User: Fold this.
Amino acid sequence: MVAFRPSRQAGQQALSGGKRGGVTEPGLAQGRPVEAEAGHAVRSLVGCGLALLAVAIWSGWLVITRVAVTSTLTAEDLSALRFGSAGLILLPVLWRRGLTLDRFGWRGLALIVICAGAPYVLLASHGLALATAAEAGVLIPGTIPLFVALISAFTVRVRVGWIARIGLGLIVTGVATIVVPALLQAVGWQLAGYGICLVSAIMWAAYTIEARRAGVDALHATAIIMVISAILFLPIYLLLPGQRLWEASATEFWVQLIYQGPITGIVALLVYTRAVAILGATRASSFTALLPLSAMLLAIPVVGEWPTLRIAIGAILAALGVLLATAFARR
Assistant:
């Protein structure tokens, strides 16, 4: 084999930055920065697309759950589908990585299973039976940053910046826009739905804080929650009266099975985690500001629920609040 050896003239050209006659050749001195900038732009675009896909899946979960619980299936049926399918898929992950009790402890383990497992899904689904998808979009994902900030401030003394405080104030205003009229009109079932949605948001906020404290990656934490919930909930479900899973059509059964478990429980998690890796936690989490609005808009063609002006204003205020609270958490 003969080794290639550049000529002296070529070596001098390379050392001089690829110049001929004092003029920089295009694509040599400037090519690499341009290519790097183009690659960064493409990477950012991919990250934004992944974050939007996660938001679309989560918005779809609110709407498709609303469709199910107002037609054939119950909250218990949906929970069985969610944990039965996702738990089975994620069982190998839990088998390889274990429960990580050294990080969670028994108390932390119980907390994440309760606050993000079967109790959470049951509560959120029952809330969606009483509140519209647009209302739930404000009251559940729209208030999670508020409750995370409040719990963190009282438990671990996390400082909230003044811009984030404005965002939290907008979330409170958006929620009040929806809840206060129902309080004044004393609509019992509506208030019950709102209350259930808010409790669901508090539970997910508690799970978020505990998972962050333990430092366990999202896929591992989800595998723990899904498998343990399946083990604990499915035997209870089989003993419950009034199961309606067997009354659903084949189409409804498979749509709910795939969307409740693999898509919402696994795919949304993976694409959002990848978006965080590309964009960073702050930029990726700011996309969740779209959830109140996207759930409201998606419910129009899917469920036929047109939002009132009051609900639309509440969703816009909550979306702006989530954006400020997540994008400027420490400012």
Notes: The first helix runs from residue 8 to 15.
